[in-house]
Specification:
about 400 residues; eight-stranded antiparallel sheet; six-stranded mixed sheet; alpha+beta; elongated
Length: about 400
């Protein structure tokens, strides 16, 4: 794996290094200790990160691991997150004397509580269960779980208390992420308990703020039902969301129209949502010569370009995500996961999307982690973005 990037960026306060802590919890590192084709892989993450490498290098697998952690942090059960857990076990992994094999993933989150690490060990065979979880802040272990009795559907957990007893012990389910359960189990009466709560909440907020994006042109061509205007991951309801952005945010809508002029054939004067009756809408490009082009007439690449530009411009309030509702959006940074980001796009479209992504991610409300086949088209970071705004991680070396 090869990493190319600039030096570490200063924090929001302008100070560089460990003293600067971001206001919004963000994932800064993804660890695939033993996951599918990855062994001891560490992926540093910035506001804008591209994963490159040839087919089979594990780009999609890395995004899959990130999405899995996000779902676990949202409270999903292990078998829902990993319906085929054996596929996550490294091919070279050998079963122990009891026939057990598994995989390990983890991440680091930076935020007001400082850097917090989560490491997870999952048994895939003979039965799916979490066999070990560790939440740490520096040298301090805040939560640690272990499978003590294979006959019970529980793990023994111990979390930092720093009161009359140094730790509190209790069983936790072996099919749910223990870190996500801590706010329900920890009283917060001691300084140690409050530290545990702060770290757990920081981890959960960062992981839950994820939007998986894979625009499907075939699904985007049909009319969309009128609804609440929250964009789905496949962008099938594109027309409805375009109507919402047109009505609610003319500035962003104007930027989207100008972006389309650089990435779609012909001249575009506006992008409209047209009522069809029966509670359905379709998107239409208004041409400068007065003509109108329904988006279903656009090519696959143009539709993907339109959808990705809309995702980058809209943000948490419009994208269909499950963030921590109790945390104001101003304190959350939404991470967009995009596999095959450059699929079906030409160099002109990629260059325009790259510049838009760099500008949007530099503002701090949206982060992008995307898998690409080539990085020749990547732009320079915009002025004022700060060093470290753009990272390229080559998983093929």
């Amino acid at each position: 794996m090869t990493l190319t990037m600039t030096a570490a960026a200063p924090g929001p306060s302008g100070r560089a290094g460990a003293a600067a802590r971001p206001d919004r919890p963000t994932l800064t590192e993804l660890r695939l200790s033993a996951f599918a084709g990855h062994r001891r892989t560490t992926i540093p993450l910035g506001p804008l990160t591209f994963l490159s490498g040839p087919s089979g290098s594990g780009k999609s697998t890395a995004l899959r691991a990130y999405a899995a952690l996000a779902r676990l942090a949202s409270g999903d059960a292990l078998d829902e997150v990993f319906p085929d857990p054996v596929s996550c076990v490294p091919e070279s992994a050998r079963a122990d004397s009891q026939g057990r094999r598994g995989f390990r993933i983890g991440c680091t989150v930076e935020g007001p509580a400082g850097p917090v690490r989560l490491d997870l060990a999952v048994q895939a065979e003979p039965g799916l269960r979490i066999v070990g979880e560790r939440l740490t802040a520096g040298p301090l272990t805040l939560l640690e779980t272990a499978l003590r009795d294979p006959g019970k559907r529980a793990v023994q957990a111990a979390w930092h208390t720093a009161g009359t007893a140094p730790v509190t012990r209790a069983p936790l389910p072996d099919d749910l992420l223990g870190t996500a359960l801590l706010p329900l189990r920890v009283a917060g009466k001691t300084a140690g308990q409050r530290q545990v709560l702060a770290a757990a909440e920081q981890m959960v907020v960062a992981l839950r703020s994820v939007f998986g994006c894979d625009p499907q042109p075939d699904r985007m061509r049909g009319p969309a039902p009128a609804g609440q205007g929250r964009l789905l991951g496949d962008c099938a309801n594109l027309a409805e969301v375009l109507r919402r952005t047109h009505d609610e945010c003319p500035i962003r809508h104007g930027i989207l129209v100008r972006t389309l002029g650089a990435g779609c054939r012909g001249t575009t004067a506006d992008l409209l949502a047209e009522e069809l009756g029966g509670g359905r809408v379709r998107a239409v490009l208004q041409r400068r010569d007065g003509g109108r082009t329904p988006v279903e007439r656009l090519g696959d690449g143009e539709l993907r370009f339109l959808a990705l530009a809309l995702v980058l411009l809209t943000g948490p309030g419009v994208l269909e995500v499950d963030p921590a509702a109790e945390v104001p959006e101003a304190f959350q940074a939404l991470t967009v996961l995009a596999d095959g980001f450059d699929r079906g796009l030409d160099l002109r479209q990629l260059g325009e999307l790259g510049r838009l992504a760099a500008q949007t991610c530099a503002r701090g409300h949206i982060r992008l982690l995307a898998a690409v086949g080539s990085t020749d088209w990547l732009p320079e970071p915009p002025d004022g973005a700060g060093p470290g705004a753009l990272r390229v991680v080559d998983l093929g070396r």
